[in-house]
Amino acid sequence: MHDFGQYRSVRIAFVGGGSLNWAMGLMADLAHDTRLSAQVRLYDIDAEAARRNAEIGNLHAAVSRGAPAGYRACETLAGALEGADVVVISILPGRFEDMAQDIGIPAEYGIPQAVGDTVGPGGFVRAMRAIPMLASIGTAIREHAPTAYVCNLTNPMSVLTGALHAVFPGIRAWGECHEVTKIRKQVAWIANRGAGTERFTHRDVQVNVLGINHFTFVDRIALDGRDMRPAYEAFVREHMEPGWAQTESGKDEEHHRYFGTRNLVAFDLFRRFGIPAASGDRHLAEFMPVAEYLADPARWGFALTPVEYRIRDRDAKRARAEEMRAGRIAPRAHRSDEALVDQIAALMGGAPFVSNVNLPNHGQMAGIPQGTIVETNALFSGLGPQPIGAGALPPDLLAHVAGHAERQTALLHAVLSGDRAALFPLFATDPLVAHLPQPRAREMFDRMVAATAGWIPDNLKGAA
Protein backbone atom coordinates (compact mmCIF):
# COMPACT_ATOMS: atom_id res chain seq x y z
CA MET A 1 0.00 0.00 0.00
CA HIS A 2 1.39 3.41 -0.93
CA ASP A 3 1.42 6.74 0.85
CA PHE A 4 2.50 9.27 -1.75
CA GLY A 5 3.61 11.73 0.92
CA GLN A 6 7.09 11.82 2.37
CA TYR A 7 7.07 8.11 3.21
CA ARG A 8 5.70 5.05 1.45
CA SER A 9 3.73 2.82 3.79
CA VAL A 10 4.29 -0.93 3.71
CA ARG A 11 2.96 -3.82 5.76
CA ILE A 12 5.58 -6.53 6.22
CA ALA A 13 4.90 -10.03 7.52
CA PHE A 14 8.08 -11.66 8.82
CA VAL A 15 7.82 -15.46 9.01
CA GLY A 16 10.52 -16.61 11.38
CA GLY A 17 10.16 -13.32 13.20
CA GLY A 18 12.14 -14.53 16.21
CA SER A 19 15.27 -14.53 14.04
CA LEU A 20 18.49 -13.32 15.67
CA ASN A 21 20.09 -12.50 12.31
CA TRP A 22 17.84 -11.31 9.49
CA ALA A 23 15.12 -9.85 11.71
CA MET A 24 17.65 -7.86 13.71
CA GLY A 25 19.26 -6.64 10.52
CA LEU A 26 15.92 -5.57 9.10
CA MET A 27 15.19 -3.52 12.24
CA ALA A 28 18.46 -1.61 11.90
CA ASP A 29 17.98 -1.13 8.15
CA LEU A 30 14.43 0.18 8.55
CA ALA A 31 15.58 2.55 11.31
CA HIS A 32 18.25 3.88 8.94
CA ASP A 33 15.88 4.17 5.96
CA THR A 34 14.13 7.44 5.08
CA ARG A 35 11.76 6.15 2.38
CA LEU A 36 9.39 3.73 4.11
CA SER A 37 6.83 3.81 6.88
CA ALA A 38 6.70 0.15 7.84
CA GLN A 39 4.41 -1.91 10.02
CA VAL A 40 6.06 -5.25 10.71
CA ARG A 41 4.19 -8.30 12.00
CA LEU A 42 6.40 -11.03 13.41
CA TYR A 43 5.39 -14.69 13.46
CA ASP A 44 7.51 -17.55 14.79
CA ILE A 45 6.81 -21.04 16.10
CA ASP A 46 8.81 -19.74 19.09
CA ALA A 47 6.20 -17.15 20.06
CA GLU A 48 8.32 -15.72 22.87
CA ALA A 49 11.17 -14.99 20.45
CA ALA A 50 8.73 -13.08 18.22
CA ARG A 51 7.50 -11.08 21.22
CA ARG A 52 11.08 -10.29 22.21
CA ASN A 53 11.88 -9.06 18.72
CA ALA A 54 8.73 -6.94 18.59
CA GLU A 55 9.81 -5.18 21.78
CA ILE A 56 13.33 -4.66 20.42
CA GLY A 57 11.97 -3.44 17.08
CA ASN A 58 9.84 -0.79 18.77
CA LEU A 59 12.87 0.43 20.74
CA HIS A 60 14.38 1.46 17.38
CA ALA A 61 11.85 4.32 17.20
CA ALA A 62 14.20 6.40 19.33
CA VAL A 63 17.01 6.15 16.76
CA SER A 64 15.05 6.09 13.48
CA ARG A 65 16.18 8.55 10.83
CA GLY A 66 12.78 8.46 9.10
CA ALA A 67 9.31 7.24 10.03
CA PRO A 68 9.71 4.78 12.95
CA ALA A 69 8.67 1.25 12.00
CA GLY A 70 6.10 -0.43 14.22
CA TYR A 71 6.45 -4.06 15.30
CA ARG A 72 3.86 -6.52 16.57
CA ALA A 73 4.12 -10.23 17.35
CA CYS A 74 1.33 -12.41 15.93
CA GLU A 75 0.19 -15.67 17.44
CA THR A 76 -0.77 -17.23 14.09
CA LEU A 77 0.75 -17.32 10.63
CA ALA A 78 -2.58 -16.28 9.11
CA GLY A 79 -2.74 -13.26 11.40
CA ALA A 80 0.71 -12.13 10.32
CA LEU A 81 -0.01 -12.62 6.61
CA GLU A 82 -3.45 -11.05 6.32
CA GLY A 83 -3.20 -7.86 4.25
CA ALA A 84 0.60 -7.94 3.96
CA ASP A 85 2.27 -6.06 1.13
CA VAL A 86 5.55 -7.94 1.61
CA VAL A 87 6.28 -11.31 3.22
CA VAL A 88 9.79 -12.16 4.41
CA ILE A 89 10.65 -15.80 5.19
CA SER A 90 13.67 -16.59 7.35
CA ILE A 91 13.39 -19.89 9.18
CA LEU A 92 15.79 -22.59 10.39
CA PRO A 93 14.78 -25.97 8.91
CA GLY A 94 15.06 -28.01 12.07
CA ARG A 95 17.57 -27.19 14.81
CA PHE A 96 21.31 -26.61 14.91
CA GLU A 97 21.49 -30.05 16.48
CA ASP A 98 20.00 -31.44 13.26
CA MET A 99 22.50 -29.46 11.22
CA ALA A 100 25.23 -31.09 13.34
CA GLN A 101 24.01 -34.46 12.03
CA ASP A 102 24.00 -33.09 8.45
CA ILE A 103 27.70 -32.29 8.91
CA GLY A 104 28.87 -34.98 11.30
CA ILE A 105 27.53 -38.12 9.62
CA PRO A 106 29.00 -37.37 6.14
CA ALA A 107 32.34 -36.55 7.81
CA GLU A 108 32.46 -40.17 9.01
CA TYR A 109 32.33 -41.21 5.35
CA GLY A 110 35.14 -38.88 4.32
CA ILE A 111 32.91 -36.03 3.13
CA PRO A 112 33.77 -32.78 4.92
CA GLN A 113 31.39 -29.85 4.41
CA ALA A 114 32.20 -26.20 5.06
CA VAL A 115 28.55 -25.12 5.35
CA GLY A 116 26.26 -28.03 4.51
CA ASP A 117 23.10 -26.04 3.79
CA THR A 118 22.80 -25.94 -0.01
CA VAL A 119 24.16 -28.98 -1.86
CA GLY A 120 26.07 -32.10 -0.90
CA PRO A 121 24.63 -34.56 1.61
CA GLY A 122 23.89 -31.83 4.17
CA GLY A 123 22.05 -29.60 1.76
CA PHE A 124 20.07 -32.54 0.38
CA VAL A 125 18.72 -33.76 3.72
CA ARG A 126 18.15 -30.20 4.91
CA ALA A 127 15.99 -29.74 1.80
CA MET A 128 13.98 -32.83 2.70
CA ARG A 129 13.16 -31.17 6.02
CA ALA A 130 12.61 -27.69 4.64
CA ILE A 131 10.60 -28.18 1.43
CA PRO A 132 7.42 -29.25 3.29
CA MET A 133 7.83 -26.24 5.61
CA LEU A 134 8.09 -23.77 2.71
CA ALA A 135 5.24 -25.53 0.89
CA SER A 136 3.04 -24.97 3.94
CA ILE A 137 4.05 -21.30 4.13
CA GLY A 138 3.46 -20.86 0.39
CA THR A 139 -0.01 -22.35 0.72
CA ALA A 140 -0.80 -19.95 3.58
CA ILE A 141 0.40 -17.02 1.47
CA ARG A 142 -1.91 -18.12 -1.34
CA GLU A 143 -4.82 -18.11 1.12
CA HIS A 144 -4.08 -14.97 3.13
CA ALA A 145 -1.77 -12.69 1.12
CA PRO A 146 -2.00 -13.74 -2.54
CA THR A 147 -0.88 -10.37 -3.94
CA ALA A 148 2.04 -9.87 -1.54
CA TYR A 149 5.63 -9.76 -2.68
CA VAL A 150 7.53 -12.60 -1.04
CA CYS A 151 11.24 -12.68 -0.20
CA ASN A 152 12.74 -16.03 0.80
CA LEU A 153 15.95 -15.81 2.83
CA THR A 154 16.11 -19.47 3.83
CA ASN A 155 18.59 -22.07 2.52
CA PRO A 156 18.75 -24.20 0.47
CA MET A 157 17.72 -21.11 -1.47
CA SER A 158 17.10 -22.56 -4.95
CA VAL A 159 15.02 -25.51 -3.77
CA LEU A 160 12.95 -23.52 -1.26
CA THR A 161 12.23 -20.63 -3.61
CA GLY A 162 11.15 -23.31 -6.08
CA ALA A 163 8.86 -24.81 -3.44
CA LEU A 164 7.01 -21.51 -3.07
CA HIS A 165 6.45 -21.26 -6.83
CA ALA A 166 5.45 -24.93 -7.07
CA VAL A 167 2.64 -24.74 -4.52
CA PHE A 168 1.48 -21.27 -5.58
CA PRO A 169 2.31 -20.67 -9.27
CA GLY A 170 1.03 -17.09 -9.06
CA ILE A 171 3.27 -16.14 -6.16
CA ARG A 172 5.41 -13.03 -6.53
CA ALA A 173 8.42 -14.54 -4.78
CA TRP A 174 12.17 -14.29 -5.11
CA GLY A 175 15.13 -15.69 -3.19
CA GLU A 176 17.55 -13.19 -1.67
CA CYS A 177 21.25 -13.94 -1.05
CA HIS A 178 24.14 -11.64 -0.17
CA GLU A 179 26.99 -13.82 -1.50
CA VAL A 180 27.58 -11.73 -4.64
CA THR A 181 28.44 -8.79 -2.35
CA LYS A 182 31.83 -10.44 -1.87
CA ILE A 183 33.07 -9.89 -5.42
CA ARG A 184 31.56 -6.41 -5.49
CA LYS A 185 33.58 -5.55 -2.39
CA GLN A 186 36.71 -6.90 -4.03
CA VAL A 187 36.15 -4.69 -7.08
CA ALA A 188 35.56 -1.63 -4.89
CA TRP A 189 38.82 -2.40 -3.07
CA ILE A 190 40.67 -2.66 -6.39
CA ALA A 191 39.28 0.68 -7.53
CA ASN A 192 40.07 2.38 -4.23
CA ARG A 193 43.63 1.05 -4.30
CA GLY A 194 44.02 2.52 -7.77
CA ALA A 195 42.52 5.86 -6.72
CA GLY A 196 44.50 6.03 -3.49
CA THR A 197 41.36 6.85 -1.51
CA GLU A 198 38.27 5.18 -0.05
CA ARG A 199 36.00 6.50 -2.76
CA PHE A 200 33.88 3.47 -3.69
CA THR A 201 31.83 0.83 -1.89
CA HIS A 202 30.27 -2.37 -3.18
CA ARG A 203 27.09 -0.39 -3.89
CA ASP A 204 28.91 1.41 -6.70
CA VAL A 205 29.82 -1.85 -8.47
CA GLN A 206 27.58 -3.43 -11.13
CA VAL A 207 27.95 -7.08 -12.10
CA ASN A 208 26.11 -9.35 -14.52
CA VAL A 209 25.26 -12.45 -12.49
CA LEU A 210 24.79 -15.98 -13.85
CA GLY A 211 24.40 -19.28 -12.04
CA ILE A 212 22.49 -20.90 -9.23
CA ASN A 213 22.51 -19.85 -5.62
CA HIS A 214 25.93 -20.12 -3.94
CA PHE A 215 27.47 -21.15 -7.27
CA THR A 216 27.27 -17.81 -9.04
CA PHE A 217 29.57 -16.16 -11.57
CA VAL A 218 29.87 -12.76 -13.25
CA ASP A 219 30.97 -12.11 -16.82
CA ARG A 220 30.69 -8.30 -16.83
CA ILE A 221 31.83 -5.86 -14.14
CA ALA A 222 31.46 -2.08 -14.17
CA LEU A 223 32.16 0.78 -11.80
CA ASP A 224 31.90 4.52 -12.39
CA GLY A 225 31.37 3.95 -16.11
CA ARG A 226 34.48 1.76 -16.45
CA ASP A 227 34.82 -1.87 -17.49
CA MET A 228 36.43 -3.37 -14.39
CA ARG A 229 36.86 -6.93 -15.61
CA PRO A 230 40.45 -6.38 -16.88
CA ALA A 231 41.40 -4.89 -13.51
CA TYR A 232 39.72 -7.77 -11.70
CA GLU A 233 41.53 -10.34 -13.83
CA ALA A 234 44.86 -8.62 -13.09
CA PHE A 235 43.96 -8.70 -9.38
CA VAL A 236 43.29 -12.46 -9.59
CA ARG A 237 46.62 -13.09 -11.32
CA GLU A 238 48.37 -11.04 -8.65
CA HIS A 239 46.78 -12.99 -5.80
CA MET A 240 46.35 -16.41 -7.42
CA GLU A 241 49.02 -18.02 -5.26
CA PRO A 242 48.95 -16.24 -1.89
CA GLY A 243 45.24 -15.49 -2.04
CA TRP A 244 43.49 -12.35 -0.79
CA ALA A 245 42.02 -12.37 2.69
CA GLN A 246 38.38 -11.40 2.89
CA THR A 247 36.85 -10.95 6.33
CA GLU A 248 33.77 -9.25 7.70
CA SER A 249 34.16 -6.01 9.65
CA GLY A 250 32.94 -5.91 13.23
CA LYS A 251 33.40 -9.66 13.78
CA ASP A 252 35.61 -11.34 16.37
CA GLU A 253 38.63 -13.54 15.80
CA GLU A 254 36.71 -16.81 16.06
CA HIS A 255 34.21 -15.67 13.43
CA HIS A 256 37.05 -14.76 11.08
CA ARG A 257 38.66 -18.15 11.71
CA TYR A 258 35.56 -19.98 10.51
CA PHE A 259 34.12 -17.55 7.95
CA GLY A 260 37.13 -15.69 6.55
CA THR A 261 38.59 -16.91 3.25
CA ARG A 262 41.51 -16.16 0.95
CA ASN A 263 39.37 -16.50 -2.21
CA LEU A 264 41.64 -19.24 -3.54
CA VAL A 265 38.71 -21.44 -4.61
CA ALA A 266 37.12 -18.55 -6.52
CA PHE A 267 40.45 -17.70 -8.14
CA ASP A 268 41.03 -21.33 -9.14
CA LEU A 269 37.57 -21.60 -10.67
CA PHE A 270 38.35 -18.49 -12.68
CA ARG A 271 41.56 -20.14 -13.90
CA ARG A 272 39.66 -23.26 -14.90
CA PHE A 273 36.56 -21.76 -16.49
CA GLY A 274 37.63 -18.27 -17.53
CA ILE A 275 34.87 -16.43 -15.67
CA PRO A 276 35.02 -14.77 -12.22
CA ALA A 277 33.29 -16.69 -9.42
CA ALA A 278 31.08 -14.48 -7.27
CA SER A 279 30.18 -16.58 -4.23
CA GLY A 280 32.34 -17.26 -1.20
CA ASP A 281 34.83 -20.12 -1.18
CA ARG A 282 33.06 -22.08 1.56
CA HIS A 283 29.98 -22.41 -0.64
CA LEU A 284 31.76 -22.77 -3.99
CA ALA A 285 33.83 -25.71 -2.74
CA GLU A 286 30.72 -27.76 -1.93
CA PHE A 287 29.58 -27.82 -5.55
CA MET A 288 32.74 -29.65 -6.63
CA PRO A 289 34.00 -33.21 -5.89
CA VAL A 290 35.57 -33.68 -2.45
CA ALA A 291 39.09 -34.20 -3.81
CA GLU A 292 39.19 -30.80 -5.47
CA TYR A 293 38.86 -28.43 -2.49
CA LEU A 294 37.19 -29.88 0.59
CA ALA A 295 39.78 -32.62 1.11
CA ASP A 296 42.31 -29.93 2.11
CA PRO A 297 40.50 -26.72 3.08
CA ALA A 298 43.61 -25.23 4.73
CA ARG A 299 45.45 -25.46 1.40
CA TRP A 300 42.61 -23.44 -0.14
CA GLY A 301 42.42 -20.86 2.62
CA PHE A 302 39.05 -21.58 4.23
CA ALA A 303 37.74 -23.48 7.23
CA LEU A 304 34.95 -25.94 7.95
CA THR A 305 32.49 -24.15 10.20
CA PRO A 306 31.61 -26.39 13.18
CA VAL A 307 27.99 -26.37 14.27
CA GLU A 308 29.22 -26.03 17.85
CA TYR A 309 30.42 -22.54 16.92
CA ARG A 310 27.04 -21.69 15.39
CA ILE A 311 25.35 -22.75 18.63
CA ARG A 312 27.69 -20.59 20.73
CA ASP A 313 27.16 -17.67 18.38
CA ARG A 314 23.37 -18.11 18.59
CA ASP A 315 23.50 -18.14 22.38
CA ALA A 316 25.63 -14.99 22.44
CA LYS A 317 23.23 -13.22 20.07
CA ARG A 318 20.26 -14.32 22.16
CA ALA A 319 21.91 -12.92 25.30
CA ARG A 320 22.63 -9.66 23.51
CA ALA A 321 19.01 -9.47 22.31
CA GLU A 322 17.78 -9.86 25.88
CA GLU A 323 20.13 -7.09 26.98
CA MET A 324 18.71 -4.84 24.27
CA ARG A 325 15.17 -5.80 25.22
CA ALA A 326 15.94 -4.77 28.81
CA GLY A 327 17.33 -1.43 27.67
CA ARG A 328 20.93 -2.15 28.67
CA ILE A 329 22.13 -2.03 25.05
CA ALA A 330 20.90 0.78 22.83
CA PRO A 331 19.60 -0.09 19.34
CA ARG A 332 21.37 1.47 16.38
CA ALA A 333 20.15 2.71 13.01
CA HIS A 334 22.57 1.06 10.64
CA ARG A 335 22.58 0.32 6.93
CA SER A 336 23.70 -3.24 6.41
CA ASP A 337 25.10 -4.77 3.23
CA GLU A 338 21.73 -6.40 2.53
CA ALA A 339 19.53 -5.30 -0.38
CA LEU A 340 16.12 -6.16 1.10
CA VAL A 341 15.02 -2.68 2.18
CA ASP A 342 16.13 -1.23 -1.17
CA GLN A 343 14.10 -3.93 -2.93
CA ILE A 344 11.02 -3.20 -0.81
CA ALA A 345 11.29 0.55 -1.38
CA ALA A 346 11.44 -0.02 -5.15
CA LEU A 347 8.45 -2.39 -5.08
CA MET A 348 6.45 0.19 -3.16
CA GLY A 349 7.00 2.73 -5.95
CA GLY A 350 10.38 4.20 -5.08
CA ALA A 351 13.37 4.43 -7.40
CA PRO A 352 13.95 1.24 -9.40
CA PHE A 353 16.68 -0.99 -8.00
CA VAL A 354 18.78 -3.78 -9.56
CA SER A 355 20.15 -6.70 -7.55
CA ASN A 356 20.91 -10.38 -7.92
CA VAL A 357 18.04 -12.68 -6.94
CA ASN A 358 16.77 -16.22 -7.41
CA LEU A 359 13.77 -16.58 -9.74
CA PRO A 360 12.33 -19.21 -12.10
CA ASN A 361 14.14 -19.16 -15.41
CA HIS A 362 12.00 -17.51 -18.08
CA GLY A 363 14.86 -17.11 -20.50
CA GLN A 364 17.13 -14.86 -18.47
CA MET A 365 19.78 -17.58 -18.37
CA ALA A 366 20.57 -19.61 -21.48
CA GLY A 367 21.11 -23.36 -21.35
CA ILE A 368 19.01 -24.02 -18.24
CA PRO A 369 15.45 -25.41 -18.53
CA GLN A 370 12.50 -23.05 -18.21
CA GLY A 371 11.13 -22.84 -14.69
CA THR A 372 14.39 -23.89 -13.02
CA ILE A 373 15.41 -21.53 -10.22
CA VAL A 374 18.46 -19.55 -11.35
CA GLU A 375 20.32 -16.58 -9.92
CA THR A 376 20.67 -13.52 -12.13
CA ASN A 377 20.01 -9.82 -11.78
CA ALA A 378 16.46 -8.50 -11.61
CA LEU A 379 14.95 -5.04 -11.79
CA PHE A 380 12.76 -4.14 -8.80
CA SER A 381 10.06 -1.54 -9.39
CA GLY A 382 6.35 -1.04 -8.96
CA LEU A 383 5.99 -3.76 -11.62
CA GLY A 384 7.56 -6.33 -9.31
CA PRO A 385 10.91 -8.14 -9.62
CA GLN A 386 11.60 -8.62 -13.33
CA PRO A 387 14.57 -10.80 -14.36
CA ILE A 388 17.21 -9.25 -16.58
CA GLY A 389 18.71 -11.27 -19.41
CA ALA A 390 22.09 -12.57 -18.24
CA GLY A 391 23.30 -14.64 -21.18
CA ALA A 392 25.15 -17.94 -20.87
CA LEU A 393 27.94 -19.51 -18.86
CA PRO A 394 30.98 -21.05 -20.59
CA PRO A 395 30.01 -24.53 -21.87
CA ASP A 396 32.12 -26.60 -19.45
CA LEU A 397 30.86 -24.63 -16.47
CA LEU A 398 27.29 -24.63 -17.74
CA ALA A 399 27.30 -28.44 -17.81
CA HIS A 400 28.33 -28.51 -14.14
CA VAL A 401 25.78 -25.87 -13.09
CA ALA A 402 23.04 -27.57 -15.08
CA GLY A 403 23.70 -30.88 -13.33
CA HIS A 404 23.16 -29.27 -9.94
CA ALA A 405 20.11 -27.36 -11.15
CA GLU A 406 18.48 -30.49 -12.55
CA ARG A 407 19.15 -32.38 -9.32
CA GLN A 408 17.62 -29.56 -7.25
CA THR A 409 14.50 -29.49 -9.41
CA ALA A 410 14.12 -33.27 -9.26
CA LEU A 411 14.61 -33.24 -5.47
CA LEU A 412 11.90 -30.60 -5.10
CA HIS A 413 9.43 -32.61 -7.18
CA ALA A 414 10.26 -35.86 -5.38
CA VAL A 415 9.64 -34.35 -1.94
CA LEU A 416 6.43 -32.57 -2.95
CA SER A 417 5.03 -35.70 -4.63
CA GLY A 418 6.19 -38.08 -1.90
CA ASP A 419 8.32 -40.05 -4.38
CA ARG A 420 10.58 -41.72 -1.82
CA ALA A 421 12.13 -44.04 -4.42
CA ALA A 422 13.56 -41.08 -6.35
CA LEU A 423 15.46 -39.58 -3.42
CA PHE A 424 18.49 -41.83 -2.94
CA PRO A 425 19.40 -42.00 -6.66
CA LEU A 426 19.47 -38.17 -6.68
CA PHE A 427 21.45 -38.05 -3.44
CA ALA A 428 24.03 -40.49 -4.82
CA THR A 429 24.75 -38.40 -7.93
CA ASP A 430 25.79 -35.26 -6.03
CA PRO A 431 29.50 -34.57 -6.76
CA LEU A 432 30.35 -34.80 -3.04
CA VAL A 433 28.76 -38.25 -2.80
CA ALA A 434 29.30 -39.78 -6.26
CA HIS A 435 32.73 -41.26 -5.45
CA LEU A 436 31.33 -43.47 -2.67
CA PRO A 437 30.38 -47.08 -3.39
CA GLN A 438 26.59 -47.35 -3.57
CA PRO A 439 26.22 -49.41 -0.36
CA ARG A 440 28.23 -46.83 1.62
CA ALA A 441 26.29 -43.94 0.11
CA ARG A 442 23.02 -45.70 0.92
CA GLU A 443 24.08 -46.33 4.50
CA MET A 444 25.04 -42.68 4.94
CA PHE A 445 21.74 -41.48 3.45
CA ASP A 446 19.64 -43.73 5.67
CA ARG A 447 21.55 -42.64 8.79
CA MET A 448 21.15 -38.97 7.93
CA VAL A 449 17.42 -39.27 7.35
CA ALA A 450 16.96 -41.24 10.57
CA ALA A 451 19.00 -38.71 12.56
CA THR A 452 16.55 -35.87 11.84
CA ALA A 453 13.47 -37.99 11.18
CA GLY A 454 11.27 -35.87 13.42
CA TRP A 455 11.34 -33.09 10.83
CA ILE A 456 10.90 -35.25 7.72
CA PRO A 457 7.43 -36.32 6.49
CA ASP A 458 6.60 -39.97 7.16
CA ASN A 459 6.11 -40.73 3.46
CA LEU A 460 9.77 -39.88 2.81
CA LYS A 461 11.27 -42.10 5.52
CA GLY A 462 12.41 -45.68 5.35
CA ALA A 463 13.96 -47.76 2.60
CA ALA A 464 12.73 -47.46 -0.97
Strand content: 15-25%
The CATH superfamily of the domain at 8-98 and 121-178 and 332-351 turns out to be AglA-like glucosidase
Specify the CATH class of the domain at 8-98 and 121-178 and 332-351. Alpha Beta
What is the typical, i.e. mean, pLDDT? 95
Using only C-alpha atoms, the radius of gyration works out to 21 Å
Strand arrangement, major sheet: 3-2-1-4-5-6
Helix content: 40-55%
**Helix-strand category:** alpha/beta
Biggest β-sheet strands, sense, barrel: 6 strands, parallel
Q: Which overall shape is indicated by the principal axes computed on the Cα atoms? A: globular
Q: Within the CATH hierarchy, at the fold level, what is the topology of the domain at 8-98 and 121-178 and 332-351?
A: LDH C-terminal domain-like
The separation of the N and C termini measures 49 Å
Please report the total strand number as a whole number: 12
Spans of at least 5 consecutive residues whose pLDDT stays below 50 are: none
Protein name: Alpha-galactosidase
Cofactor: NAD(+); Mn(2+)
Keywords: Carbohydrate metabolism, Cobalt, Glycosidase, Hydrolase, Iron, Manganese, Metal-binding, NAD, Nickel
Family: Belongs to the glycosyl hydrolase 4 family.
